[in-house]
Amino acid sequence: DTEVTQTPKHLVMGMTNKKSLKCEQHMGHRAMYWYKQKAKKPPELMFVYSYEKLSINESVPSRFSPECPNSSLLNLHLHALQPEDSALYLCASSPLGTGGLVGELFFGEGSRLTVL
Amino acid sequence: GNSVTQMEGPVTLSEEAFLTINCTYTATGYPSLFWYVQYPGEGLQLLLKATKADDKGSNKGFEATYRKETTSFHLEKGSVQVSDSAVYFCALTRGDSGGGADGLTFGKGTHLIIQP
Lengths: 116, 116
What we know:
Strand content of chain B: over 45%
Largest sheet of chain B: 6 strands, mixed
Radius of gyration of chain B: 14 Å
Number of strands of chain A: 11
Structural class of chain B: mainly beta
Largest sheet of chain A: 7 strands, mixed
Order of helices and strands of chain B: EEEEEEEEEEEE
Shape of chain B: globular
Helix content of chain A: under 10%
Order of helices and strands of chain A: EEEEEEEEEEE
Oligomer: heterodimer
């Protein structure tokens, strides 16, 4: 299984809602990532988890709250978002340690979020 | 930090034309280099990669060579097809690719349009 699965694929929420994006991988990768991608722009790193611990937070507003409950799952909890947070949210995973795959990210299809 | 500069499009070519998309980078240490492709409405797929100087990555007729002396990783294909129409991102590891999870830094992306 070489897939990263993200749900939901589309999400529409109001500014007062609380929702979550979910990501799952079964490749045994111990690093997982959240990226944000606006239309016609490159992906921007938000968070990195290494061995289920948050290792990088790129100064993301606290209305985005990541969670890594185990080595296969990654969540992004959303609360009190703004319309400018509308974007494609991409999850990725990668192996850790040495070897040819280090640094290579495997991406999911993304969750397209619209904030009204 | 590490950064990537790639030619911005759109790049419009006729089918069977030769393709070059330029990519140069700035980095400390020895990053790994990647080309990712994104088709409309989809996530990112790894196209090819190179992990050290003079390595050539290749896949589906695409090639790129890690040139440390010119800090470049240009993408080439000898004969493009309509199905190659997509956005292409050059990327490099954000930190020293020594086994850690630093994520990738992406170029701005090049929109490639192939006309029949």
